TrEMBL record:
PANTHER family, A to Z: CATION EFFLUX PROTEIN/ ZINC TRANSPORTER, RE54080P-RELATED
UniProt membrane topology term: Multi-pass membrane protein
Protein name: Cation transporter
Main location: membrane
Origin species: Pelistega ratti
Source species, domain of life: Bacteria
MF (Gene Ontology): zinc ion transmembrane transporter activity
One cellular component term from this protein's GO annotations in UniProt: plasma membrane
Amino acid sequence: MACSHHLQHAKTGKYRTALWLALVINGLMFLVEIIGSIQAGSVSLLADSLDFLGDTANYGVSLFVLNHALRTRAKASLIKGGTMLLFGVFVFVSTVYRWWLGELPNYHEMSLIGTLALLANLWVVWILYRFREGDSNMQSVWLCSRNDALGNFAVILAAFVVYLTQSNLADLFVALFIAYLAISASRKIIHQAKQELNGNISTPSCC
């Protein structure tokens, strides 16, 4: 039993370190992308920057409740799931507004910042990959990281299409794609968190 407790403590310590690294990387990339999105006039970069901000808060909450009971972690997951849902709705509304303005984003800055963000998120995905299974909190952390990498790749692709077509439609489409990822992930997280709160699911506290 003592050996099992020691192993559990070691795994929790590794997960805490991984969360801290992910938090710092995402916080820095939020600053880079929010400035870049304003300069480039890109709604997909704006959506991705807000995603970085949401993930930074996500990792912070996960660190705070890491050693708490499953029920407490599930309640935190409900909050994070709700936040992701609001983020998705905000991005959708912003995309409609940008479509109405009809401005062409700077595809050079989009591709450059998108590539930097992709590399940062691939690093985070690599750090968190072994912690992708577990309770709703661990699920939410993994889903956020995975979605970010997908969103970054989509931003780079959008920049290329904007360059070829001289149209902002690709930028708008990618923003909607990022919004869809956020809303889809939020539904999954909220569903599992509710099951945990109702005692209908048993998940390990670490991977």
